[in-house]
Amino acid sequence: MASLNRVFLIGNLTKDPDIRHTPKGTAVGDLGLAINSTYRTTEGVEKEEVVYVDLVVWGRQAETCKEYLSKGSPIFVEGRLQLDQWESNGEKKSRLRVRAERIQFLGRPGGSGGGGRSSGGYDRESSRASAPPPSRDADEPAPSDDDVPF
Question: N or C terminus: which one in the chain shows less Cβ crowding within 10 Å?
Fold first, then answer.
């Protein structure tokens, strides 16, 4: 039987990205994500529930998160569950977190467009939407997402 380990999440960062580097220089980022959902109780009262998820992101993507995201930034995450296990003072410990394989910046907290930082930044979606389409010949094929340099 085949297994599947795939996670898709949308939420807001609970803190600024925390980035460190391995001895070989690879960037590793720790992010916290808050995911809000609402539901109605059997009495008809609307309740809000928040789930907090720890994320780990590697390489250039970690550095980009540090540069453009801050606490409250909305993001879309695609990744997989990762179980970390270690021993501390003779006691076995573990934690389940999401290894982010792709992070998409969704804009400013509480607004639209722009990057994660209120002082500006880069948001792929808003910059693509605000730029006028380039003129092209009818015989020329439309550019694909693979042609975009970021």
Answer: N
- pTM beyond cutoff 0.70: no
Would you say residue 143 lies in a domain? no
3-state secondary structure of 63: helix
Tell me the longest C-alpha to C-alpha distance in the chain. Answer: 69
Taking the C-alpha atoms of residue 105 and residue 122, their distance in angstroms, rounded to an integer, is 8
Question: What is the residue range of 43's domain?
Answer: 7-132
Cβ neighbours for 113, distance < 8 A, ≥ 6 positions apart: 107, 123, 126, 130
Taking CA atoms, 46 is separated from 40, 42, 101, 104, in Å, by 4, 10, 34, 30
For 110-124, the pLDDT digits (tens) are 554 444 333 333 333
d(CA 126, CA 107): 8
Number of structural domains the chain divides into: 1
Q: Give Cα separations from 27 to 35, 79, 137 (angstroms).
A: 25, 17, 42
CATH number of the domain to which 15 belongs: 2.40.50.140
Q: What is the pLDDT of residue 150?
A: 37
